[in-house]
């Protein structure tokens, strides 16, 4: 596409200038996410950011359901953010790629996936509530991915908003060191603006402006604001001392040149030091405002460009292995009816262009990018190329799934892998860790819930299969399988809301009314002892005789392993061809998919093949079938155990409602670890089996008149006690 056309296209697409699409220098890129507890104001803050940066012409309002980032229909209706949308815009010469992350616990995979591609994040808090349960979860995830952060205390206009309370909760609950870069002018109804502690200026928003674009920035003067100036000078001195404690370079500067008078220290020197401290994650800058009342968002944008890192400041280890060759991570797939799958890529190194052939490491396939777009919520602008540090949207990649790593060719990946291995040897690191870093993938948790899904008629089954295939590429935490006995399609997901949303999307986006069976917990099975079995398969098909005899032993493993550990007796290993070995392993894996008790997957088992005799001419399918049948026979004979998902539960409840909540949890086989005190609230922390906690949000709402909140996360799979196990088995077999 020519530049002329591009220019025209841009005007048509309502984009400000050509400037916004040219590859910006990497130092000027910020890949940012906004994370928060539900309802803290992420969407409203994002909307304001897009408006002030000039990318939207009017202010969206979550309560009216017309925001840009929550563009999926259900999100509009539910008023929550489910799928993250990447939005690209410019602010004062910086390119900002903003990824709106979801806040609901069922979508933590989405959050993880987004965090993986971010260089920095803004944590939005409701200033009247401080740190809430979900903020803690995402904060921990951001710690895991080492993402530098800044905090925005939103809702300063709300009755009950307290800057000090919110700052204290950041200090206490997040164990972070807040750097107060601003102080509010007024709180609740009297909130008017903020004071910039670094520059000693006050920022006041014009009360008559309806979009908050109009605000004035004035230096604090002795004459007009003596009290405030005194307060801010003290706050600035405290900030300087705090930063000097955390940054040696700054400490040298402060103790040398400016030790007599901190007032002489230029704002830029302090800003540079705050940037370094933010990057080192030894402290977090704190700002405040009210997105809804259009106050404090422009300084937040300035802070994003000033304090959060550019992509080249992240020091991602795997980059050195690519030596400038293409390396990108597919972090989201969307399905567009006209254009087919759209894949969001974070480019770590190298460059991408339309018509480029790329190699997908995880899928081990090569495919071609047909077009390259810049993501602007649900609008997309076509561009000629994009370089490292950017987020791109590609058309044409049909096999790429969320979480896949994209490189220029297979040989480039192999070269990077060799460099990583050499590096790993130097550092005595295990090779699989090098591989993990190289692939930079996102861990996909195992789904804990499942239910059957049926199309409205048998004729619609292919349409349902297609819809599920598309949805799975977008969301790898959704699993789909076929029940081998009933032939029904089974949907496996991360939570009740997750399954509900998928059901909803199939209806809206694919026009299919489907029926869900009751939601069930995904159990696992294991064995407790060691058992041996032998089997022979002798079948003649046409004029070919297939004959296999196998003897194997299955025993329980001490360590946890989803896949069976397979061993061969020396005599078997000696003359086993590669094809036969693969056939054996396929057979064993398929037998482990369906345990003898509930048909759930078998885990934590080791299998030893003691003997395997294969008659010449026997097909590999027959080898697999025989081995699989033999293992099933062994598993049936063993002492069997059901494993159930155990959840970490955290309930925040006022003191008055603590007793009924505890009594209810006791009935749900809950195991309470501790009860903490947070302000007037009690926080109950413990474990509870997933099977006992279905529909808990409704129960908790009724028990506490809607005053409690809870967070739930998979802890591990644990053995059920014999009594619970036999109750479950009789329920399943319809005996009770
Ligand atoms: N008083 C006040 N209300 C606000 C402010 N910002 C957002 N809200 C309101 O808080 C509610 C939630 O805002 P959202 O922007 O949807 O919050 P969110 O964090 O995106 O929510 P999820 O997408 O559900 O995670 C809405 O009713 C907003 O109008 C603010 O600065 N002050």
Total of domains: 5
Bound molecules: guanosine-5'-triphosphate
Strand order of the largest sheet: 16-15-21-12-13-20-17-18
Rg from C-alpha positions?
29 Å
CATH architecture descriptor text of the largest domain = 3-Layer(aba) Sandwich
The total of beta strands comes to: 35
Kindly describe this structure.
The chain is of the alpha+beta class and 736 residues long. The protein folds into five domains: 18-307, Rossmann fold (3-Layer(aba) Sandwich), CATH 3.40.50.300; 318-419, Translation factors (Elongation Factor Tu (Ef-tu), domain 3), CATH 2.40.30.10; 449-522, Elongation Factor G (Translational Gtpase), domain 3 (Alpha-Beta Plaits, 2-Layer Sandwich); 526-638, Ribosomal Protein S5, domain 2, CATH 3.30.230; 643-733, Alpha-Beta Plaits, CATH 3.30.70. The protein is built from 21 helices and 35 strands. It has an eight-stranded antiparallel beta sheet. A seven-stranded mixed beta sheet has the order 2-3-1-4-5-11-6, sandwiched between helices. Strands 22, 23, 24, 25 and 26 form a five-stranded antiparallel beta sheet that branches. β28 and β29 form a beta hairpin. α7 (226-246) crosses α8 (248-255), α7 crosses α9 (267-280) and α17 (578-592) runs parallel beside α18 (620-637). The longest helix has 21 residues, at 226-246. The radius of gyration is 29 Å and the shape is globular. The model is unreliable at 1-20, 74-84 and 429-441 (pLDDT under 50). Bound molecules: guanosine-5'-triphosphate. Residues 36, 38-44, 62-63, 79-81, 103, 154-155, 157-158, 290-293 line the site of guanosine-5'-triphosphate. Its main location: mitochondrion. This is Ribosome-releasing factor 2, mitochondrial. Residues 27-312 form the Tr-type G domain.
């Amino acid at each position: 596409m020519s530049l002329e056309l591009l220019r025209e296209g841009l005007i048509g697409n309502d984009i400000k200038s050509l400037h916004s699409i040219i590859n910006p220098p990497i130092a000027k890129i910020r890949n940012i996410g906004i994370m928060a507890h539900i309802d803290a104001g992420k969407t409203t803050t994002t909307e304001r950011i897009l408006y002030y940066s000039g990318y939207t012409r009017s202010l969206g309002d979550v309560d009216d359901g017309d925001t840009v980032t929550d563009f999926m229909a259900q999100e509009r209706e539910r008023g929550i953010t489910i799928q993250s949308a990447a939005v690209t815009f410019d602010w004062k010469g910086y390119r900002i790629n903003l990824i709106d992350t979801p806040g609901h616990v069922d979508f933590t995979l989405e959050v993880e996936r987004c965090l993986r591609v971010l260089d920095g994040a803004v944590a939005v808090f409701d200033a009247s509530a401080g740190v809430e349960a979900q903020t803690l979860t995402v904060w921990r995830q951001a710690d895991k991915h080492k993402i530098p952060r800044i905090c925005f205390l939103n809702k300063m206009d709300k009755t009950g908003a307290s800057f000090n309370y919110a700052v204290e909760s950041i200090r206490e609950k997040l164990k972070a060191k807040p750097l107060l870069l601003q102080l509010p002018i007024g709180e609740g109804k009297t909130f008017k603006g903020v004071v910039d502690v670094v520059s000693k200026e006050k920022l006041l928003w014009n009360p008559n402006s309806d979009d908050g674009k109009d605000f004035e920035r004035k230096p604090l003067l002795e004459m007009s604001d003596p009290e405030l100036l005194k307060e801010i000078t003290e706050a600035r001195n405290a900030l300087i001392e705090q930063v000097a404690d955390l940054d040696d370079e700054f400490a040298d500067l402060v103790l040398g040149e400016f030790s007599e008078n901190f007032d002489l220290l230029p704002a830029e020197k302090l800003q540079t030091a705050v940037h370094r401290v933010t990057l080192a994650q030894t402290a977090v800058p704190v700002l405040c405002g009210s997105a809804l009342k259009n106050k404090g968002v422009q300084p937040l944008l300035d802070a994003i460009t000033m304090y959060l890192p550019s992509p080249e400041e992240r020091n991602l280890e795997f980059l050195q292995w690519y030596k400038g060759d293409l390396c990108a991570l597919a972090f989201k797939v969307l399905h567009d009816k006209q254009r087919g799958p759209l894949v969001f890529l974070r480019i770590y190194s190298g460059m991408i262009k339309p018509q480029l052939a790329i190699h997908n490491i995880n899928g081990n396939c090569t495919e071609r990018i047909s077009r390259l777009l810049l993501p602007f919520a649900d609008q997309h602008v076509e561009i000629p190329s994009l370089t490292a540090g950017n987020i791109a949207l590609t058309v044409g990649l049909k096999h790429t799934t969320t979480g896949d790593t994209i490189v220029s060719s297979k040989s480039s990946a192999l070269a990077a892998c060799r460099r990583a291995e050499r590096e790993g040897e130097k550092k005595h690191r295990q090779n699989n860790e090098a591989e993990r870093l190289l692939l930079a993938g996102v861990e996909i948790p195992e789904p804990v819930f499942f239910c059957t899904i049926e199309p409205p008629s048998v004729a619609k089954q292919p349409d349902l299969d297609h819809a599920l295939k598309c949805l799975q590429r977008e969301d790898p935490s959704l699993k789909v399988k076929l029940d081998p006995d009933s032939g029904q399609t089974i949907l496996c997901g991360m939570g009740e809301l997750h399954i509900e949303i998928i059901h909803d999307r199939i209806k809206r986006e694919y026009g299919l009314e489907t029926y869900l069976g009751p939601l069930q917990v995904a159990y696992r099975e294991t064995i407790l002892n060691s058992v041996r079995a032998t089997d022979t398969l002798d079948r003649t098909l046409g004029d070919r005789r297939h004959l296999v005899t196998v003897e194997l032993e299955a025993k329980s493993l001490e360590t946890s392993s989803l896949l069976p550990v397979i061993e061969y007796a020396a005599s078997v290993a000696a003359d086993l061809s590669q094809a036969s070995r693969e056939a054996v392993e396929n057979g064993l894996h398929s037998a482990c998919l369906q345990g003898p008790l509930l048909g759930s997957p078998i885990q934590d088992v080791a299998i030893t093949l003691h003997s395997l005799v294969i008659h010449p001419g026997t097909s590999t399918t027959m080898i697999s079938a025989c081995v699989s049948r033999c293992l099933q026979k062994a598993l049936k004979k063993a002492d069997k155990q059901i494993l159930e998902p155990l959840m970490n539960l955290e309930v925040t409840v006022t003191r008055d409602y603590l007793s009924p909540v505890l009594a209810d949890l006791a009935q749900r086989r809950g195991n309470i670890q501790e009860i903490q005190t947070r302000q007037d609230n009690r926080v109950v922390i413990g474990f509870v089996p997933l099977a006992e906690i279905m529909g808990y949000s409704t129960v908790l709402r009724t028990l506490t008149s809607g005053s409690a909140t809870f967070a739930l996360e998979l802890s591990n799979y644990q053995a059920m006690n014999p009594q619970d196990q036999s109750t479950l088995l009789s329920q399943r077999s319809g005996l009770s």
